[in-house]
Amino acid sequence: MALPFFLRKELVVANHAVNGRSSKSFVDEGRLEVILAAIQPGDFLLIQFGHNDEKAEDPTRYTEPWTTYQDHLRMYVEGARARGARPVLATSVERRKFDAGGKAVTTHGEYPAAMRALAAEEGVALLDVQALSHALWQELGVEETKKYFNWTATEQDNTHFNPPGAIAVARLVARELLRTRVLGPRDVRRLDEPIPESWITWPQAAA
Predict the structure, then answer these.
(1) Bridge partner list, 7
(2) What InterPro entries does its record include (predicted)?
(3) Is there a domain that residue 49 lies in?
(4) 0.90 cut: is pTM over it?
(5) Parallel, antiparallel, or unpaired for β 44-47 and 125-127?
(6) What CATH code is carried by the domain that includes residue 74?
(7) Do 61 and 22 form a contact (C-beta atoms < 8 A)?
(8) Which tens digit of pLDDT belongs to each residue from 153-203?
(9) pLDDT in tens, 67-92
(10) Is residue 68 one of the residues assigned to a domain?
(11) What is the rounded distance in angstroms from the CA atom of residue 45 to the CA atom of residue 42?
(12) CA-to-CA distance for 10 and 187, rounded, in angstroms?
């Protein structure tokens, strides 16, 4: 939702992300099929899954990092390429988790490594959002990171972002798109500028 703030206006972002889906359930629900029916030659397909692939207790979502996770990611990569679009893989953004000594802890197990390996194998650009967000949470520390997540007196959500968190992560993504040369310097903007929280509008929940 915040990514367009960092891209030139002519670059249109179609956000097909849906809460709670894994690389497997997204395919099984026909959502990848919808994207591939609409994607055009020259488009980019940004692919980021992992959080819900980790749910071993749920067979509708669970994938194993080095087998079924990679297998499903290949569906996105091959589907995009078959239509003349360019796939871009992005490792999972880190959750907010610290040990007793205040050190940021990684939470995604082997999934980021499996995606990195697949990107290298398939020659796909990789945005290492996991490594960058982990470093950012470590830099910010235990208390400051609460300002980036849905962390309140009544809710301690260490996974989902509030507007400042969404903006911070989108900034990381935009910088990675530039670093990996997926986009050029003229395609990105405001990388070092503050973004007002009011620019983000959340979708209204259905009645």
Answers:
(1) 188
(2) RhgT-like (IPR037459), SGNH_hydro (IPR013830), SGNH_hydro_sf (IPR036514)
(3) yes
(4) yes
(5) unpaired
(6) 3.40.50.1110
(7) yes
(8) 888 999 999 999 999 999 999 999 999 999 999 999 999 999 999 998 766
(9) 999 999 999 999 999 999 999 999 99
(10) yes
(11) 10
(12) 9
